[in-house]
Design brief:
The chain is α/β, with parallel strands linked by helices. The chain contains six helices and ten strands, in the order E-E-E-H-E-E-E-H-H-H-E-H-E-H-E-E. It has a single domain, classed as P-loop containing nucleotide triphosphate hydrolases (Rossmann fold). Strands 6-7-8-3-9-10 form a six-stranded mixed sheet, sandwiched between helices. A four-stranded antiparallel sheet has the order 2-1-4-5, with helices on one face. Helix 2 runs parallel beside helix 4. The chain starts with a strand and ends with a strand. The structure holds adenosine-5'-triphosphate and magnesium ion (MG). One of its GO terms (molecular function) is transmembrane transporter activity. Pfam families: ABC_tran.
Length: about 210
């Protein structure tokens, strides 16, 4: 399995948001997580990528238990709040994970991934010089540039127009088909439609 979560529980201010979440995702599988606003989708993704620790339960990525945030190659994230560095261009933001691995072709690979997402011409702009939907695609580019074992995408189509959403969906599907386990939290039926398996958070548990 690419990712296994066992019995994840998490409370905030004594409110039990997650209560026994179990999940196992294979390499190349595309899973969506639905559920109403506030049901805990982002909270769960934060735990799956090691940004937050569960009160109970464990997460394994490629059979190794998480103890803090794993490397970007093991688990890359498209956060709901994007988190692009404003001091860096889109190409530089996208290249960051590659620079950390010492990849010599960081720039060319970054621009190629941005182009795959339809924003290659914006590679040398700064985040505040492009739209929020374009920033979202750059944050997705940064997540997939290293071909991670697991990709966690929080609302990947939330800010993009119809045509760009189609591009994002095609790219997410392609990333899964190349072997990455893709887990996307979404309200968007178009994302659910391209997934292999659709789950939803209901009363703190994942159900089919
Ligand atoms: N760090 C935190 N501190 C306190 N409460 C939190 C924290 N993180 C999440 N929560 C609470 O947990 C619940 C779930 O939030 P979460 O952001 O996971 O929802 P969501 O399903 O992602 O919603 P949306 O669809 O709006 O993105 C909410 O009630 C939220 O207020
Ligand atoms: Mg959320």
């Amino acid at each position: 399995m690419a990712l296994v979560a066992n019995g994840i529980g998490r409370s905030f201010r004594r409110v039990e948001v997650l209560r026994g979440v179990d999940l196992a995702v294979e390499p190349g599988e595309f899973v969506t997580i639905g559920g109403p606003s506030g049901s805990g989708k982002s909270a769960l993704l934060s735990i799956l990528c090691g940004f937050d620790r569960p009160d109970v339960g464990s997460v394994l990525i490629r059979d190794e238990e998480l103890d803090g945030a794993p490397s970007w190659q093991r688990c890359a994230v498209l956060p709901q709040a994007l988190g692009l560095a404003g001091e860096l261009t889109l190409a530089e933001n996208t290249a960051l994970p590659l620079l950390l691995t010492g990849s010599p072709e960081a720039r060319s690979r970054s621009v190629a991934v941005l182009a795959e997402l339809g924003i290659g011409d914006l590679a040398d702009r700064y985040p505040n010089e492009v739209s929020y939907g374009q920033q979202q695609r750059a944050a997705l580019a940064r997540a997939i540039v290293v071909e991670p074992a697991v990709l966690l995408a929080d609302e990947p189509t939330a800010h993009v127009d119809h045509a760009s959403a189609e591009v994002v969906l095609t790219v997410l599907r392609r990333v899964a088909d190349r072997g990455t386990a893709v887990i996307a939290a979404t309200h968007d039926p178009r994302v659910h439609a391209v997934a292999d398996r659709r789950l939803r958070l209901d009363k703190g548990r994942l159900v089919a």
